[in-house]
Amino acid sequence: MELYRLTIHELQNLFKRGEITSREVTESVFRRIEAVEGKVHSYITLLKDSAMEEARVADGSIRRGEIRPLTGIPVALKDILCTKGIKTTCGSRILYNYIPPYDATVVKKLKAAGAVFVGKTNMDEFAMGSSTETSYFGLTKNPWDLERIPGGSSGGSASAVAADECIAAIGSDTGGSIRQPAALCGVVGMKPTYGRVSRYGLIAFASSLDQIGPFAKDVEDCAIMMNAIAGYDPMESTSVPVDVPDYRSFTGKDISGWTLGIPREYFIKGIDPEVLSAVKKAIGVLESLGAECVDISLPHTEYCLAVYYIIAPAEASSNLARYDGVKYGYRAKDARDLLEMYKKTRSEGFGAEVKRRIMLGTYSLSSGYYDAYYRKASQVRTLIKRDFEDAFRKCDVVVTPTTPTPAFKVGEKTDDPLQMYLSDIFTISANLAGIPGISVPCGYSGTGLPIGLQFLAGHFQEGKLIQIASAYERHSKLEKRRPDL
Amino acid sequence: MEYEAVIGLEVHAQLLTDSKIFCGCSTKFGATPNSHTCQICLGMPGVLPVLNRKVVEFAIKMALATHCRINSEDVFARKNYFYPDLPKGYQISQYDKPLAEKGYVDLEIDGARKRIGIIRIHMEEDAGKLLHDEYAPSSYVDFNRTGVPLIEIVSEPDLRSPEEASAYLRRLHEILVYLEICDGNMEEGSFRCDANVSIRPKGQEPFGTRTELKNMNSFRNVQRALEYEIKRQQYVLEGGGQIVQETRLWDESQGATISMRGKEEAHDYRYFPDPDLVPVVTDEAWIAQIKRSLPELPLERRERFVRDFGIPPYDAVVLTSAKALADFYEETVRLTGKPKIASNWIMGDFLRFLNEEKKNIKESLVRPEGLAEMINLIEDGTISGKIAKEVFETMYRTGKSPAVIIEERGLVQITDEDALKKVVAGVIAANPVQLKQYRAGREKLFGFFVGQVMKETCGKANPALVNELLKKMLSAL
Q1: Are B28 and B173 members of one domain?
Q2: Which residue does chain A place closest to B85, by CA atoms?
Q3: A130, A157, A177, A423: which one is catalytic?
Q4: How many other CB atoms are found less than 10 A from the CB of residue A5?
Q5: Residue A452 Cα, gap to closest chain B Cα (Å)
Q6: What does the alpha-carbon distance between residue A150 and residue A303 come to, in Å, rounded to a whole number?
Q7: Is A104 close to B272, i.e. CB distance below 8 A?
């Protein structure tokens, strides 16, 4: 039995029965990494020594019967989460040597839950991208087809889970950066409600949209990860003090009598026919479980991309101002004065996509343009939120494809930012509305590429998402495939 | 042509909270560079701000004391610009939704009242400090000040002269210190001021083009800079020139303002609401509670002192210039029932000693109870006013109570008539020459005899009794 293939709940059962140790699991995962990392390149930093030590400590706990939700489970972290004493690059040259003096709240929570940290995963620079191609640290490949991208920006976390280079992983989602790579890599990925999981220690891209969430091999693991990371954090002003339910309790339940909203704006021309057919088939499965479909409208959908590309770059242009070469990270050499140091540092330290977005954001916040761009976008964002409020009066969850196409080829969209931006067209609305979303595998293309199904629910209704995703996963009779590496 | 100045002031006051506005670091001045910092105030990647409630409370106090309307919801905004002392590349401030708006303060100018409007009061974080190496082309940053809470108080352009500007500034300073929300130390930068100034021909309604003055770190410099700038603008206009809208720095050593940057180089701060913070909701109940906790403000207290204690307005101004001083005075009056005598002691020796040592009254060893005890000892004749000066000085230096000082030094006034008679007789007998002259009509020599008696008694003789006895005994001879 290859231990790296197992899920969290399977491993936990084996731990409880004393059949395996965390050291064995962790060693198995690192052997797997040695075997496939050269092809996939999921990681920027690997933490083998500390992981083995953490596994040893976990085994002590297991022997004493002190098993916490993630005791001894090898977990990967997107390199956007600050880890005390461990290099955290955010995929950027400008932070190539940055070692945070503190742990993100989510990292603390995972530690408290007993997790073993495998490494820090690759990502689009500052989470700006949909393919992990903007990373300063090289490409990550889709484990299902090494010619293709894994999605992004949390591409490394998605590929690490898909290629069994960890048991579960953490990512962040600003416009789809968890759900889109989860769909393209055939794993489960959830973006929780804005305010549900603490952003403290998550390197900011767009503060009003960023949210941390899990990647997992199945829905039950996703629930276990959510149990570990969700909750109010006094270190974050936008964290919401709402009780966290036991997400695991939502698995294995039926969905009979549920109403599924099928938004007509999401089933448009341009969707890959194989994606459309897989999603339609999935909806059929849900109907067979007693759910009823209703046609709904989210009338402001067509503005989502435009609103997103005003708000996210505007916030980013301000959030990324701190990378100036003064305090930490990359500093250009041989600058003659302060202004030149700033210019050279930022010109050399940031990649093209990051610079493009900083310029977009700087422009839209500028005096004389603010009202036409940022203010207007904020107003439309309110309308998009209302679309969903109206929708959730008529249905329990909204069902859509996660992405319009399966994984595209490396380099296919790098010269066409607009085409790249369109790959997030179905995921961006949840970030603008602050609602939770989950992507679960729902089939494969003719060439064997995974396809994702997205469920969206109202604020703090992650439980509903777990419930329907779990019901679908159980009854879909989807063939369980593994990437051939 | 006769010109009139139009001046508006922007005052930055550091709030006396223990911790910074968005993290738990200490706000104490003068610590080792970068010792009062954490990942949050250093702007490390991933950190988030959490508002210090005390900052809002202090800001509301100032808003109430200056009759501002407090907005039920105010919003923090990011002010974006690059500078090494600004670790995040933006300052968290307030922009279109400040804490409070539309207030005023009243000034007394040449005996007449003048009301100066306040446009707004908002909260923000302070920046760090750059230290430049004098010998190498290097600069260092001290982030201890980064994140220290500030309020900015923006006046209407209601001030018409440097004197008015100075009076307004002193009034704001007095209120802030009185409310105990700012230590008012201009040298340490806890109270800073920028000015907008323009001139216009007297009688003309529209404002002229204004310049902004910065870097004035004392009341005196504000006044000097304004005087200079008004003259400079007048000179430009009279020479047929035009005022350029620009920012100018006051250079104290040259006694002049110097152009720093023009309108074209003015920053575009790209303000937008800070997505990491939520709107601040100030509910009525909280404001009412803060209102109840406000102390009586200097102007009202001044008027009450004159009215209730019958002291001269000048005394009242001095005694209410700081809250601790006024509290001290009021307590002394309560314990003695002697407002004028208490005022004389405080405004005389006490303030002189304090000023000599540059101390404030809270740092003094003398407490109202001690001063009151001493005044009561003078009143009941235990010590003379002259001895009291010595007692007070000892009390000031040692903190001992007057009774103990008098006991230790044997300073009790001699009021025993028989004992004094002997001294007086002795003095008369020992000075036959002076006695002869006195009796021959040189009455000025009476003072000489008083002095001799005092000398003999080391000043402890009751002066009234000495006078009485001397008169009686000299004329009886």
Answers
A1: yes
A2: A326
A3: A177
A4: 13
A5: 30
A6: 27
A7: no
Q: Distance (Å, rounded) from C-alpha A464 to C-alpha A435?
A: 12
Catalytic-residue membership of A78: yes
Residue B291 lies in a domain: no
Q: Exactly one of A42, A92, A153, A439 is catalytic; which is it?
A: A153
> Residues B90, B190: one domain?
yes
Domain that holds residue B423: 417-476
- Kindly state whether residues B151 and B232 are assigned to the same domain: yes
Spatial separation of the C-alpha atoms in residues B170 and A342, rounded to whole Å: 40
- pTM given for the model: 0.88
B437 touches B445 (CB < 8 A): yes
Let me know whether B37 and B185 are in one domain: yes
Q: How far is B162 from chain A (nearest CA, A)?
A: 33
> Which of A467, A294, A460 is CA-nearest to residue A393?
A294
Our answer to whether residue A477 is catalytic in this structure is no
Is the ipTM of this structure higher than 0.90?
A: yes
Query: Is the Cβ–Cβ distance between A321 and A204 less than 8 Å?
Result: no
> Which residue of chain A comes nearest to B43, CA vs CA?
A322
Tell me if residue A280 is catalytic.
Answer: no
Neighboring chain B residues of A328 at a CB cutoff of 8 Å: 44
Please answer yes or no on whether B87 and A234 come within 8 Å at the CB atom: no
Left, alpha or beta for B266 (phi > 0: left; psi -120 to 50: alpha)? beta
Q: Taking the CB of residue B471, how many other CB atoms lie within 10 A of it?
A: 12
Beta bridge partners of B113: B108
- Give me the tens of pLDDT residue by residue for chain B, a chain 477 residues long: 789 999 999 999 999 999 999 999 999 998 999 999 999 999 999 999 999 999 999 999 999 999 999 999 999 999 999 999 999 999 999 999 999 999 999 998 887 889 999 999 999 999 999 998 888 888 899 999 999 999 999 999 999 999 999 999 999 999 999 999 999 988 888 999 999 999 999 988 899 999 999 988 889 999 999 999 999 999 999 999 999 999 999 998 898 999 888 777 778 999 999 999 999 999 999 999 999 999 888 888 988 999 999 999 889 988 988 888 999 999 999 998 889 888 988 998 888 988 888 888 888 888 998 888 888 888 877 777 777 888 888 888 888 888 888 777 777 777 777 888 888 888 888 888 888 888 888 888 888 888 888 888 777 777 888 888 888 888 776
* Domain count across chain B: 3
Kindly determine whether residue B50 and residue A235, on different chains, have CB atoms separated by under 8 Å.
yes
Q: Which of B50, B87, B90 sits opposite A327 (nearest CB)?
A: B87
Q: What is the CATH number of domain A3-256?
A: 3.90.1300.10
Nearest to A236 among B48, B88, B268 (CB): B48
Question: Which residue among B42, B50, B82 places its CB closest to the CB of A237?
Answer: B50
